[in-house]
């Protein structure tokens, strides 16, 4: 019986493959969970939903106050509502909030952008609806952009995308 020495190539291949097999086995042990969020992130998402609700309500009020503005920028309202629906879907415990509709959130809550709906503070006297709405769009974009780095994955992408879109809406309202 002769014992043949193991070729050096076989030893090197085996030494390189063994750690990779262990790594692969470790990676496939548990499937990745859903895009989980911390309690602080849940609160932050709720604030972003509220900020978007306020923007939708501000749009409704501004378009009602200015038919000319409504005629030139009506498509924005639909986009803001769609963004709100996406934010609600992305927020694990935030549903259609107590407002239920866009106009229900215009008083009280200031979470997110810190703004209230047009006319709520001074009765709307002397307020330029276009300028006021442009300011609210910018504040909501800032709110979403500020929150974006606190998230990963789809939620970060959503907040960043909405913030960028709102920047474009501000230009439309200029």
TrEMBL record:
Please give the superkingdom of this protein's source: Bacteria
> What UniProt keywords apply to this chain's record, in alphabetical order?
Signal
Q: Where is this region: Disordered?
A: 95-129
Q: Which PROSITE patterns match?
A: PROKAR_LIPOPROTEIN, TAT
Here the segments flagged for biased composition (Low complexity) are: 95-120
Q: Which residues form the signal peptide?
A: 1-29
Which InterPro entries does this UniProt record tie to the protein?
A: TAT_signal
- The entry's protein name is DUF4439 domain-containing protein
From what organism does this protein derive?
Klenkia sesuvii
């Amino acid at each position: 019986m002769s014992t043949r020495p193991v070729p050096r190539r076989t030893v090197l291949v085996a030494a390189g493959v063994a750690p990779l097999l262990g790594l692969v086995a470790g990676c496939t042990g548990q499937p990745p969970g859903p895009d989980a969020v911390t309690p602080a992130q849940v609160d932050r998402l709720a604030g972003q939903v509220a900020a978007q609700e306020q923007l939708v309500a501000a749009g409704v009020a501004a378009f009602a106050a200015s038919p000319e503005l409504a005629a030139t920028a009506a498509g924005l309202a639909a986009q803001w509502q769609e963004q709100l629906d996406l934010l609600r879907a992305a927020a694990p415990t935030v549903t259609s909030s107590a407002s239920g509709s866009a106009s229900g959130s215009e008083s009280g809550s200031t979470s997110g952008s810190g703004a209230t709906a047009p006319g709520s503070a001074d009765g709307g006297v002397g307020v330029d609806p276009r300028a006021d709405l442009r300011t609210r769009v910018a504040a909501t974009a800032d709110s979403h952009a500020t929150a974006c780095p606190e998230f990963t994955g789809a939620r970060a992408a959503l907040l960043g995308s909405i913030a960028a879109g709102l920047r474009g809406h501000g230009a439309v309202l200029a």
